[in-house]
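A favour, since you know our structure tokens better than I do. It will help me judge whether the discrete encoding reads sensibly. The space below this message is yours for that.
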Amino acid sequence: MIYTITLNPALDHYLEVDDLDMDDANRVHAETLYAGGKGIDVSRAIRHLGGNSIALGFIGGHNGHILVDLLKRGGVTSYFTSIAQETRRDIIISTKRPAAQTLLHARGPSVDAEEWRCFLAHLRLLDLQDAYVVVGGSLPRGVPPDAYRQIITLVQRRGAKAVLDADGPCLRAGLKAKPFAIKPNVHELQRALGRPLRTDAEILRAAATLHKTGVEIVIISLGRRGLLVVSEQDRRLVALRTIPPAVTVRSRVGAGDSTVAGFVFRLAGGKGLEECARFATACGTAATLAPGNQLCRLSDVQRLLPRVRIEPLTIQKH
């Protein structure tokens, strides 16, 4: 089973306009509502790939009801913890002239101590043995700063493998619990380590160092240059880089979440490291072909997958 955790989900309101004129009326040509947030996006992408997962987290108010209904209509099962305050609504404005996206992120609700305890109690009710639990995104106000450390510790003690996709203090706190896998991009990795990573060799050494601290699979997103993956196979350290095919990008929204979805989906299916990395790269690339935040589409993934290349790497010591 795959679970995803989104503590600060959002109802994403996507708007399309020709251009955005300040201090004037702007005509909206198309608009769509999406259930959003890192973990929720992973659950949606897994569903697009033909898999199943259960989305967990906090939900509240009218926006929360709409979000849950959107997930249900999309075939995604959810088991959210109710809170008193309203789930946030984010605004995404896509313009044609120039081709750009403007994101307006709402502050979101505040979660009280009792609601946090209820969420942890809900986690303990789940069958987590041999499950994968994807944890990611920002924290709502009110939850402990080390929320991800607490979650990862809880689920891994109960037999699950935690996959962390977070930034800043959330990533640093989560790393203390030694999650099974992480997927930062280079900028997130630099912020977590507190030092610049100027070359691929430096990035690779940083990934290897994180692996030595107890993270079994380290996946670093290099953007359009693919993924860098470090793990252990047959008692030896393995490093590889995926090279995605060149495509015309329509939107980068959800590309990272689609990457995580592809990797975990294949991993839960018993596939090896190279196949997981190749499939994840195809999913992340496929997401850039979809407008708005529609995430990866299976037909695009299947078309791109044979064109993803794998390059073995050697970790150079200082």
About this structure: The chain has one domain: 2-313. The chain is about 35% helix and 25% strand. Residues 273-287 form the longest helix (15 residues). The radius of gyration is 19 Å.
